[in-house]
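[Meeting: bench + compute handoff]

Bench side (C.D.) handed over the final construct sequence. Compute side (W.E.) agreed to return the predicted structure before the next meeting so the bench team could plan truncations. Sequence as handed over:
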Amino acid sequence: MGDVNAAGQIDTGITADVIDDYRFFSPMEYLHEYWSDSDQESDFSARFLHEIFESLEPQKTMVDVGGGPTLYQLISARNKVESITFAEYLESNRNEVEKWVKDEPGAFNWDIHLKYTHELEGQAYAQSIDEMKTCLRKKLTEFVPCDLTKSPSIPGQRRTFDIVSSHFCVEHISKDYTELKSRLATLLELLKPSGYLIMSFLRNASSYQVGTFNFYSYPINETEVQVLLKQLGCDVLRIESGPAETCRTYEGTFSLLARRVS
């Protein structure tokens, strides 16, 4: 995060072009940049998550870590978990998702992504998008602050969950390979033995754009993540690479399912 220098100015980050100060992060600008429409990136994520949750047996608890102001990653989860804890660093991001849960005016409209998942499900779980919304709102039972640079990452007594979900998060808060491994290890503290880990990453990203700002991202690829997770006691059960839209500052995305074995 940036600091205030001797002149009373905010040091906004790494270079003049890329920053890591999330005081400049706008939830709505992020949502409009990446989730205002359906595209090949969002469709890949929805399809992967649909197939992953279809393959899992029902679970009791899930925590989603560092989801920003988004809930696309939770749509398919509603079918297989009893309760979802939304754990996010920025209060403004938590507030944005809570606004949708409470169906408040001005909440971001996720209907296009709900519709796509509804088509993938073939009405196996809900007859309509409204039914999907009602179910997901009931499953989102808790909103808590979370900081993967600290242990425990969620304040209070240590907790573990049957599923840990984290998408496009750890690579944005890691300055090098050592920090990336540390952030992943802290994330895994939330996972029960034999629990499932579901993650997504930007592939070989230098940054990602939100409004007029480019936010820092540590470049990482599929092989490096698999090696790290194996070192941390997880078996990667499935990993799949996805595309990037044109003009992005990353090569693509990749998503994975892993299971904690030690």
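W.E. noted at the follow-up: The CA atoms of residues 69 and 93 lie 4 Å apart. C.D. will use this when planning the next construct.
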